[in-house]
Structures are given as C-alpha cells and as structure tokens.
Amino acid sequence: MTETTVDLLIVGQGVAGSALAWQALRRQLRIHVISSPVDGPLSASQVGAGLITPITGSRLALAWRFAEFRSSALDFYRFVANETKRDCWRNRPALRWLTTAEEELWLSRCQKFPTSANYLQPIEQDLVASREHGIQGPAGTKPYVMPEAARVHLPVFLEATEKWLMETSCISRAEFKPCDLLWDEVACHWKWRSMTARRIVLCTGYTPELIRLPFLAAKGELMEIDLPGARQDYSWHGGIWMTPQEQGRWLVGATYDPLHLDHKVTSQARLELSQGLAQWSVKNPQILSQQAAIRPAVPGQIPVIGWSLPESILIGGPEVTWPQQKNCGLINGLGSRGALWAPLLANWLLDAMAGQPLPPEIDLARFLRS
C-alpha cells in the first residue's frame, strides 16, 4: 500500500476540523482528516444552528472579541464559497426583545462603552412584527436589533467540505483510537494506517474518553417547525431563539441539559421549546423534527486550543508510547459558537506551529498547569 505523508492529521470533521482543513489549505499545508463513521451519533456541528450574534445572555454581554472573530469568519466562509460554489453565510439580523429592566441595563452599558450601542439598536415594532401570522414580541417589551448578526448554514458548510476532502482523497471514515497511532522515533512522525504525519490535531468535540479536558458539556435539543407565511427578515432571540429556514420552516432552540449527556430527544425539551415559542404568540406549531447533541464546553465558557505533549492530551492505554515532542494539537470547547470561532481559532493554532503566542485566555496551557 502506498504511504501518504501529510503535515497535519486532523481528527474530526465538525466545524473545527473542517475550518482547520481549509485554513491549512490556504497555507499550502498537506492534510488528512479522520471523520467519524456515518452511523455514529450526530455531532454538535451537525445539529447546530450556526447563529452568530454579538450580544448574549441575560447580562447582555458583548461576545468575546466579536468584531475580530466575525471579520475572520466572513472572509473564511467567502473563501470556502468561492472554492466549492456553495455559499453557507447569510447576513441575518437578530431581534432581542428587552424588558424595561433589560433596556435600562443596556442603556447603562452603552453609556460606559459607547461603541457597544452599534451592536444592539432600538427598532420600531411595526417593522419587525409578523402579525398576519400572529408572531409578535412579548407584552411589555421593546424590540432591539443586532444588525451584525448572521447565520452559517452548517449542513451546507460540512457537506461542501466533505465533498472537497473526498475529491482530493484527503478524508478517511474511521473510529479514531489512540492505540492505532505509532510514533517513529527515527523519522519523527506519526503513523496511522498508510498515513504519516508530522503533527496530529484533535477536533473531536465532547470526547472525555479520548482527551484530557475538564469538560462542562450539556445536551442541547432543537426542533424544526412549519410556519408558512411568517416574515423571514430576522432571527428572534429571548430565552430561546428561532431562525428561518427555507420554504416556511424555522429552526427553534435550544435547551440546556448538563445532566443527561446523551443523544435522545425528549418530550420535556419539546415542551420547553413550545413554551418559549408561546412568548412570541406562536402556539401549537407543526413540529417537523427534533434533534439532540452534546455541546462541548470547558471552564470559562470560551474555547481552548494549543499544542502539547501527546501524553498531556490523549488518553491511551499502557501499550501506547508517546513522543516527548509538542506535536499534538487541540481545538475544543466551542460550545454553541463554533461557526463564529472556528475559522480564527484554526489560524491561531497554525500560527502557534511557527512559534506565535496564543491568547492566554484560550491557551491549552491553562489546563495543563493544574
């Protein structure tokens, strides 16, 4: 069998692994991706909505380094669209309905940080309500719009990436096991099947059986509903979110369950999402489907990336001998923001190969010290 040599062996073809593959291509690096078997459970990337919003949570906080990440993401997805002829980026302003207390909190924040006002702006209710279909904001709230919000259609991105990887013979579908890795001390490279690689990068999401991270994961469920005739100018946010699909369909999410880390859909989640829809006067919608996946998160609620000794990251049996070189990389903890974070994180990880420092907030070293 012919041996193939690559610069990076990437484990995982979710949004992180896919972004890393494309960014490596832009640097003319040789890559190969190990993707999970098709009969495995759905990943967070496959289920995720790909929403990009600058303001999050009940504290109305501006997302970490949002402008930098959004600019990088837009450039990246345009590049992918040009290469694949599949456009997955949609500029999609998002509505956030604020109570009087929330509005006071936001105005106070804008006084302290005037540039924040650009990310969440008041808008006339008549411009956003869809009363002909019964959709409107909760009583006693005012609509604000996030004009910089967007959406990445992750199924389109992942399918286009997989097609490109298959056409270039750069992907294998297999269950990755650390015991299948061999380290050649003389040649200083990894061996996996007929592949040799200088470095390996784990983009495997929530995999506590594989990598050493203090996960704070949670199961999230979402559902697709039929809402024909409703205006599709905006995504709606408030406790839950809903975002328009094609042909009158909307995606609705997402629940948060840190106790049941499985892929089973539940009636409790369906009820919770339906109750959330009721705040916008969407009652008894036709539910077309429901999905569940586990979001990978780590302490701090921001991602973790870096290079380290394999034994510091990978969980292997006694039969595995690890090299004493920092040639094992990782991108993880993207939570629900993978579409926004992955492109720039991939670039930062590749920069670190050449010795560039990583932002300390996300450096894998913060976990290895303990």
UniProtKB/TrEMBL annotation:
One of its GO terms (molecular function) is methyltransferase activity. Keywords: Methyltransferase, Transferase. Gene3D superfamilies: D-Amino Acid Oxidase, subunit A, domain 2, FAD/NAD(P)-binding domain. One of its GO terms (biological process) is methylation. GO terms for cellular component: cytoplasm. Residues 7-350 form the FAD dependent oxidoreductase domain. The keyword Transmembrane does not apply. This is Bifunctional tRNA (Mnm(5)s(2)U34)-methyltransferase/FAD-dependent cmnm(5)s(2)U34 oxidoreductase. It comes from Planctopirus ephydatiae. The lineage of its organism: Bacteria, Pseudomonadati, Planctomycetota, Planctomycetia, Planctomycetales.
